[in-house]
Amino acid sequence: MKYLVDTHTHTVASTHAYSTLQEYVAMAKQKGIKLFATTDHGPDMADAPHFWHFVNLRVIPRIVDGVGILRGIEANIKNIDGDIDFFGDYLKQLDIVLAGFHEPVFAPSDKQNHTQAMINCIKSGKVDIITHPGNPAYPIDIEAVAKAAAENNVALEINNSSFLTSRKGSEHNCLAIANAVKEAGGLLVMGSDSHVSYSLGDFSQALTIIDQANFPVERLLNRSPEALLSFLSIRGHGALDEYSALLEQ
After folding, report:
1. In degrees to the nearest 10, what's the CA dihedral of 121, 127, 128, 129?
2. CA gap 45, 102 in Å, rounded
3. CA distance 132 to 77
4. Which domains does the chain have, with CATH numbers?
5. Contact predicate 7/39, CB 8 Å
6. What pLDDT shows up at residue 164?
7. What angle do CA 150, 156, 161 make, to 5 degrees?
8. What pTM did the predictor assign?
9. 215 touches 204 (CB < 8 A)
10. What region, left, alpha or beta, does residue 225 occupy, with left being phi > 0 and alpha being psi -120 to 50 degrees?
11. Percent of the chain at pLDDT exceeding 70
Protein backbone atom coordinates (compact mmCIF):
# COMPACT_ATOMS: atom_id res chain seq x y z
CA MET A 1 0.00 0.00 0.00
CA LYS A 2 1.28 3.49 -0.86
CA TYR A 3 0.81 6.23 1.69
CA LEU A 4 0.24 9.52 -0.12
CA VAL A 5 -0.44 11.79 2.86
CA ASP A 6 2.25 13.47 4.99
CA THR A 7 1.32 15.46 8.09
CA HIS A 8 4.75 16.75 9.19
CA THR A 9 7.06 18.95 7.07
CA HIS A 10 9.29 21.99 7.58
CA THR A 11 10.20 24.74 5.13
CA VAL A 12 12.94 27.38 5.09
CA ALA A 13 10.72 29.38 7.44
CA SER A 14 12.20 27.09 10.10
CA THR A 15 15.75 28.07 9.28
CA HIS A 16 17.26 24.67 10.05
CA ALA A 17 15.17 23.34 7.13
CA TYR A 18 16.15 23.77 3.51
CA SER A 19 13.22 23.77 1.05
CA THR A 20 10.52 26.22 0.06
CA LEU A 21 6.84 25.44 -0.07
CA GLN A 22 7.02 25.54 -3.87
CA GLU A 23 9.74 22.90 -3.81
CA TYR A 24 7.55 20.69 -1.63
CA VAL A 25 4.67 21.00 -4.06
CA ALA A 26 6.95 20.06 -6.97
CA MET A 27 8.27 17.06 -5.03
CA ALA A 28 4.73 16.02 -4.09
CA LYS A 29 3.82 16.02 -7.78
CA GLN A 30 6.89 13.95 -8.59
CA LYS A 31 6.17 11.40 -5.85
CA GLY A 32 2.40 11.29 -6.28
CA ILE A 33 1.72 12.74 -2.82
CA LYS A 34 -1.91 13.90 -2.70
CA LEU A 35 -1.94 15.90 0.53
CA PHE A 36 0.69 17.26 2.91
CA ALA A 37 0.78 19.64 5.84
CA THR A 38 3.24 22.49 6.17
CA THR A 39 4.06 22.52 9.89
CA ASP A 40 6.93 24.80 10.74
CA HIS A 41 8.15 25.04 14.31
CA GLY A 42 6.16 27.15 16.74
CA PRO A 43 7.51 30.63 17.58
CA ASP A 44 9.14 29.68 20.90
CA MET A 45 11.72 27.58 19.03
CA ALA A 46 15.06 29.37 18.69
CA ASP A 47 15.04 29.69 14.89
CA ALA A 48 11.30 29.41 14.27
CA PRO A 49 9.29 31.81 12.13
CA HIS A 50 7.51 34.73 13.74
CA PHE A 51 4.02 34.27 15.18
CA TRP A 52 2.66 36.18 12.16
CA HIS A 53 3.97 33.45 9.84
CA PHE A 54 1.22 31.17 11.12
CA VAL A 55 -1.42 33.89 11.17
CA ASN A 56 -0.69 34.60 7.50
CA LEU A 57 -0.82 30.98 6.31
CA ARG A 58 -4.27 31.91 5.04
CA VAL A 59 -2.60 33.28 1.89
CA ILE A 60 -1.55 29.75 0.86
CA PRO A 61 -3.98 28.12 -1.58
CA ARG A 62 -5.61 24.91 -0.40
CA ILE A 63 -4.70 23.10 -3.61
CA VAL A 64 -1.75 23.88 -5.89
CA ASP A 65 -1.27 21.97 -9.13
CA GLY A 66 -3.45 19.13 -7.86
CA VAL A 67 -1.65 18.84 -4.49
CA GLY A 68 -3.47 19.64 -1.24
CA ILE A 69 -1.66 21.79 1.32
CA LEU A 70 -2.82 21.83 4.94
CA ARG A 71 -1.95 24.99 6.85
CA GLY A 72 -0.41 23.86 10.11
CA ILE A 73 2.12 24.20 12.89
CA GLU A 74 4.36 21.97 14.96
CA ALA A 75 3.88 23.79 18.23
CA ASN A 76 6.08 23.36 21.26
CA ILE A 77 4.83 21.83 24.49
CA LYS A 78 6.03 24.45 26.95
CA ASN A 79 5.44 23.11 30.46
CA ILE A 80 3.83 20.40 32.57
CA ASP A 81 0.45 22.12 32.15
CA GLY A 82 0.62 21.13 28.48
CA ASP A 83 0.53 24.69 27.18
CA ILE A 84 1.71 25.32 23.61
CA ASP A 85 3.18 28.38 21.89
CA PHE A 86 0.18 29.22 19.71
CA PHE A 87 -3.19 30.16 21.09
CA GLY A 88 -6.69 31.51 20.96
CA ASP A 89 -8.67 32.12 17.81
CA TYR A 90 -5.47 31.88 15.78
CA LEU A 91 -5.46 28.12 16.42
CA LYS A 92 -8.91 27.85 14.87
CA GLN A 93 -7.58 29.30 11.62
CA LEU A 94 -5.17 26.40 11.14
CA ASP A 95 -6.10 23.15 9.40
CA ILE A 96 -3.90 20.95 11.57
CA VAL A 97 -2.06 21.39 14.87
CA LEU A 98 0.89 19.23 15.87
CA ALA A 99 2.81 19.58 19.14
CA GLY A 100 5.83 17.95 20.69
CA PHE A 101 8.78 18.31 23.02
CA HIS A 102 11.84 20.22 21.80
CA GLU A 103 14.90 20.75 23.97
CA PRO A 104 15.23 24.54 23.46
CA VAL A 105 11.69 25.07 24.83
CA PHE A 106 11.08 22.23 27.33
CA ALA A 107 14.30 20.79 28.69
CA PRO A 108 14.21 17.05 29.39
CA SER A 109 13.18 16.39 32.97
CA ASP A 110 11.79 13.07 34.23
CA LYS A 111 9.20 10.51 33.20
CA GLN A 112 6.51 11.87 35.52
CA ASN A 113 6.82 15.45 34.27
CA HIS A 114 7.01 14.40 30.61
CA THR A 115 3.92 12.23 30.98
CA GLN A 116 1.96 14.92 32.81
CA ALA A 117 2.86 17.55 30.22
CA MET A 118 1.95 15.33 27.27
CA ILE A 119 -1.35 14.14 28.74
CA ASN A 120 -2.33 17.69 29.68
CA CYS A 121 -1.54 18.79 26.14
CA ILE A 122 -3.66 15.95 24.75
CA LYS A 123 -6.56 16.84 27.05
CA SER A 124 -6.41 20.54 26.19
CA GLY A 125 -8.34 19.99 22.96
CA LYS A 126 -5.90 22.24 21.08
CA VAL A 127 -3.68 19.61 19.47
CA ASP A 128 -4.52 17.01 16.82
CA ILE A 129 -1.23 15.07 16.72
CA ILE A 130 1.59 14.56 19.23
CA THR A 131 4.92 14.48 17.41
CA HIS A 132 7.75 12.03 18.07
CA PRO A 133 6.42 10.76 21.43
CA GLY A 134 8.99 7.95 21.27
CA ASN A 135 11.92 10.33 21.76
CA PRO A 136 14.20 8.56 24.29
CA ALA A 137 15.27 11.94 25.70
CA TYR A 138 11.70 12.32 27.02
CA PRO A 139 10.63 9.01 28.59
CA ILE A 140 6.88 8.78 29.20
CA ASP A 141 4.35 6.36 30.64
CA ILE A 142 3.45 4.97 27.23
CA GLU A 143 0.28 3.15 28.26
CA ALA A 144 -1.09 6.22 30.06
CA VAL A 145 -0.35 8.51 27.10
CA ALA A 146 -1.85 6.05 24.61
CA LYS A 147 -5.01 5.76 26.73
CA ALA A 148 -5.38 9.55 27.02
CA ALA A 149 -4.81 9.99 23.28
CA ALA A 150 -7.46 7.40 22.41
CA GLU A 151 -9.97 8.91 24.83
CA ASN A 152 -9.43 12.40 23.39
CA ASN A 153 -9.24 11.45 19.69
CA VAL A 154 -5.65 12.66 19.37
CA ALA A 155 -3.22 10.78 17.12
CA LEU A 156 0.29 9.79 18.15
CA GLU A 157 3.02 10.02 15.55
CA ILE A 158 5.55 7.46 14.40
CA ASN A 159 8.25 9.85 13.22
CA ASN A 160 10.35 8.57 10.34
CA SER A 161 13.13 11.08 10.95
CA SER A 162 13.65 9.64 14.43
CA PHE A 163 15.15 6.52 12.87
CA LEU A 164 17.37 8.35 10.38
CA THR A 165 18.82 11.69 11.47
CA SER A 166 17.59 12.56 14.96
CA ARG A 167 16.33 11.06 18.24
CA LYS A 168 18.43 7.94 17.74
CA GLY A 169 17.31 5.00 19.83
CA SER A 170 13.59 5.63 19.30
CA GLU A 171 12.76 2.22 17.83
CA HIS A 172 11.97 0.41 21.09
CA ASN A 173 9.73 3.22 22.37
CA CYS A 174 7.96 3.64 19.04
CA LEU A 175 7.12 -0.06 18.83
CA ALA A 176 5.79 0.09 22.38
CA ILE A 177 3.71 3.16 21.43
CA ALA A 178 2.29 1.43 18.36
CA ASN A 179 1.29 -1.59 20.44
CA ALA A 180 -0.18 0.55 23.23
CA VAL A 181 -2.22 2.64 20.79
CA LYS A 182 -3.42 -0.53 19.10
CA GLU A 183 -4.54 -1.90 22.47
CA ALA A 184 -6.18 1.38 23.52
CA GLY A 185 -8.15 1.68 20.28
CA GLY A 186 -6.46 4.93 19.27
CA LEU A 187 -4.97 6.44 16.14
CA LEU A 188 -1.47 6.58 14.72
CA VAL A 189 -0.03 8.75 11.97
CA MET A 190 3.31 8.50 10.23
CA GLY A 191 5.18 11.76 9.75
CA SER A 192 8.24 12.21 7.60
CA ASP A 193 9.33 15.24 9.69
CA SER A 194 10.90 16.34 6.44
CA HIS A 195 13.37 19.22 6.65
CA VAL A 196 14.17 19.07 2.94
CA SER A 197 11.73 18.30 0.16
CA TYR A 198 13.46 15.10 -0.92
CA SER A 199 12.22 13.29 2.20
CA LEU A 200 8.57 14.27 1.75
CA GLY A 201 6.41 11.19 2.16
CA ASP A 202 9.29 9.00 3.32
CA PHE A 203 7.86 6.51 5.80
CA SER A 204 10.30 3.68 5.05
CA GLN A 205 11.44 3.21 8.64
CA ALA A 206 8.13 4.09 10.30
CA LEU A 207 6.44 1.37 8.26
CA THR A 208 8.74 -1.19 9.85
CA ILE A 209 7.28 -0.25 13.24
CA ILE A 210 3.72 -0.32 11.88
CA ASP A 211 4.30 -3.76 10.40
CA GLN A 212 5.96 -5.15 13.52
CA ALA A 213 3.00 -4.03 15.62
CA ASN A 214 0.55 -5.36 13.02
CA PHE A 215 -1.21 -2.04 13.46
CA PRO A 216 -4.64 -1.90 11.78
CA VAL A 217 -4.49 0.22 8.64
CA GLU A 218 -8.00 1.57 9.27
CA ARG A 219 -6.60 3.47 12.28
CA LEU A 220 -3.62 4.91 10.40
CA LEU A 221 -4.40 8.46 9.28
CA ASN A 222 -2.00 8.36 6.33
CA ARG A 223 -4.07 5.76 4.56
CA SER A 224 -5.90 8.35 2.43
CA PRO A 225 -6.69 12.07 2.15
CA GLU A 226 -10.25 11.18 3.13
CA ALA A 227 -9.11 9.57 6.36
CA LEU A 228 -7.04 12.55 7.48
CA LEU A 229 -9.60 15.16 6.41
CA SER A 230 -12.40 13.30 8.17
CA PHE A 231 -10.32 13.14 11.35
CA LEU A 232 -9.58 16.87 11.20
CA SER A 233 -13.24 17.66 10.56
CA ILE A 234 -14.27 15.64 13.61
CA ARG A 235 -11.61 17.52 15.56
CA GLY A 236 -13.42 20.76 14.67
CA HIS A 237 -11.36 22.19 11.83
CA GLY A 238 -13.39 24.07 9.24
CA ALA A 239 -12.99 24.91 5.55
CA LEU A 240 -11.95 21.36 4.75
CA ASP A 241 -14.59 21.13 2.04
CA GLU A 242 -12.17 23.20 -0.03
CA TYR A 243 -10.16 20.02 -0.46
CA SER A 244 -13.07 18.17 -2.05
CA ALA A 245 -11.39 18.22 -5.46
CA LEU A 246 -8.69 15.93 -4.05
CA LEU A 247 -11.29 13.31 -3.21
CA GLU A 248 -12.52 13.26 -6.79
CA GLN A 249 -9.12 12.42 -8.27
Report:
1. -60
2. 8
3. 12
4. 5-239 (3.20.20.140)
5. yes
6. 85
7. 170
8. 0.97
9. no
10. alpha
11. 100
